[in-house]
Amino acid sequence: MSAVRTRGGHGLAPLLFVLIALAILSAELWAGPYYLKLLSRAMILALAALALDLVVGVAGLVSLGHAAFLGVGAYTVGILAEHGITSGWIQWPIALFASAAFALVIGALSLRTRGVHFIMITLAFAQMLYYAANSLSRYGGDDGLTIWNRSEFATFFSLADRSTFAWTCFVILLLSYLLLARVVASRFGRVLRGAKDNERRMEALGYPVARFRLVAFTLSGTLAGLAGVLLANLTEFVAPAYMSWHRSGELLAMVVLGGLGSLYGAIIGAFFFVLVEEALARITTHWALVFGPFLILLVLLGRGGLVGLLENLGRR
Amino acid sequence: MRVLLAAKGLAKSFGAVVAAADLDLAVEAGEIHALIGPNGAGKTTVLRLLSGELRPDAGCVWLADREVTALAVHERARLGLARTFQHSSVLSSFSVLENVAVAIQAHAGSSFRFFKPASPDPRLEEPALAILERLGIEGLADRPAAALAHGERRLLELAMALACRPQVLLLDEPLAGVSNKEAQRLIGVLAALRAEMGMLLVEHDMDAVFRLADRITVLVNGRVIASGSPSAVRADPLVRSAYLGEEEEL
Amino acid sequence: MKSEYRATALDPALLVVQLLNGVQLGLLLFLVASGLTLVFGILDVINLAHGVVFMVGAYVAASTFLHSGSLLLAAAAAPIAAALLGLVLDRLVLRFLYERSHLDQVLATFGVVLFVDEAVRTLFGPAALPFPLPASLEWSLPLPGGTSYPAWRLVIIAGGLVLAAGLFGILHRTRAGMLVRAAANDARMLEMLGVDVRRLFLLVLGAGSALAGFAGALAGPIMAVQPGMGDNVLILAFVVIVTGGMGSVQGALLGALLVGLVDTLGRAFLTDLVRTLLPPAAANEVGPALASMAIYLLMAIVLLIRPQGLLSVRRAAR
Ligand SMILES: Nc1ncnc2c1ncn2[C@@H]1O[C@H](COP(=O)(O)OP(=O)(O)OP(=O)(O)O)[C@@H](O)[C@H]1O
Ligand SMILES: [Mg+2]
Question: Which value does ipTM take for this structure?
Fold first, then answer.
């Protein structure tokens, strides 16, 4: 039997996770809580970007509204905490269910269209949730909502501890990556990849392409919701800004920055984004003056993102 | 003979262009039915109407005993309708073998399987390889489809269609642009497949049409001007003037 | 663009005011959406930077007016500056994106938005720029029923109507307009017929940017002139286009008026409506949330019934 090329390879992923683990360790030992928090933030955004890569990079659907699911996850935690429900065993499943439900409905509507329409519609629905959150005066309106207690997991472990929190993010990111890598290589993932390549052909072969895409969109939205759960716990705060379209655009930038469709590229992109943002923000408050043109140049000149760059260097 | 695919009163216009008008057509089991006509006659449009890519303005389509006019492309494909495209349509980022394996996968169990890697999987790859062998292109199995020559891509497309184990196969100019050698092989393959399915063959190569077809329908400006056995069609004066005449002038 | 009026019951006089507000919002959105929809239609390019063109129009109008005191000068400067900005952006960024994927177009034009928003913030500060109206326009037209309607909003309605009529006149009566409509329908075909689609596109982009910039000038006095003000308008314009149908200017007009009316009337009356169904405390929560979602729900309903939009020139799902 001849070998068949599939996207099963993990490429730089093992190295990447080792580096992240080392970064967490050294932050624990030397750098202190600020860096632990920064790393946690990077891992959480990496999780969201990873989720988005399934839709954009693997399935070829440009969603410009993924911050919405981040927001749904975060708001679920915030609202439940506001009502005194602080147990993570209750909060997290409900948050995941809520993000899945929103992703299912938004996906089902958006997937009735293609191309530019799809982009505008995902953006519009995210904006709808953004404004809805703004008008929730019971839950802070546009000021946002402070979360007084992080999700509690009884006696098992406490997310209040910064180290525990960072390692929780790490484990969740790693497991999510492994899950999605398997999904991409599975029969299901192969249909997604095929439909990205040539939708008409896949339909003619008998695949209900829209149904596969909807499942992928829902899975992606759920994982983005999980990122929102973590983000709410990290910042102990939720606000409509979590769902702003800038955040959606940034997630998309991270995915492309890292390299489309490779999954771990999205993680690299997210770390790069968070670190550059941090570094630039120290120099100037007008960091978007630099980042905007950088994004334009990245699109116009850079092909294959950072992963492509690294792999090319490795081949030399 | 059992009718596998039938169309009644099909009509489709694009603005002022009539691509199909009150068109009746049937494909029986074990038959190669050729659909010919000059450029722009509406042949591809008819295939798109039959496969469900286009909705007809009027008329209906049956697969075996089932009316499928309202069904989507993938639903008709599941009922045993496969097709090749006039402009080869393969998954160019996949290897040749994986292209065929995807086609097998479409008709072998559920594709909503999320964990087990799709490859290697002998249940998909062995039959895929067998089909490549049948078409004589097993040597290309590991090539990326994007790297295929035009004629090879046509063969791959046929392989993908066959992997669906169709009852009815719609072929849109399978011989266009392939080398003479490949054409001979393709004609042989199609002739051998006749026993297994019904075929609707759109083709400009009259040699091939007259060698393969059991029945020929001639389409001009979306209308059938003649339909019948090859010899009857060849003798039809209308066809000679409207179509074969043109062909000879070229 | 918040309405200034709050209704307590469905009072016909207030209804008239809200209807006028809805039409006014709709016409503003139409001015932004019409250029956008033609740009999509002709080259299938998604241009997120159209919103910052609107913003720059508002800024240019506000500063021109502040420095010169002439509203006419401000009204002339805004569309000119906006058209120039649109063409400069094309030269620097857009023209490299025509043949690229939608994803590339989204990201690069998102980069433009980040840059221009931040540049404006750096130059003018984060606070809103004052854009007071001259005393000659600071009056309201009394309406029957004891209400009145601000003169400036009437100016917006009048300006929007004149421009919309002019646009339709150009599109349907002139040769260039006919070509533009044909290009929005099928640009490749036109190209094969020997028409310079690229020049046509620049014309549409320039004119569309001028319209958006003028809309910014009109909106300036009733909307806070501040960085990022174009972003919301851009997204509303998207809703308009999706609802009305891609590439169709009639669709943009229909979609814009629908969105304007649904949004305004929703904000004005939906909470009261909900109050008849729910206890007041709950209604005060649900009502505003529902009102802010109304236009998106409208879009969702249109998507369910006609995924290609109400008056599309092409099918969305091809
Ligand atoms: N999507 C479409 N929109 C508008 N016109 C179309 C469309 N598809 C086909 N046509 C027109 O319908 C007519 C029939 O086209 P069709 O492709 O079916 O012809 P054909 O017989 O397959 O021609 P050929 O031998 O060149 O492949 C042509 O005039 C064509 O221009
Ligand atoms: Mg054809």
Answer: 0.91
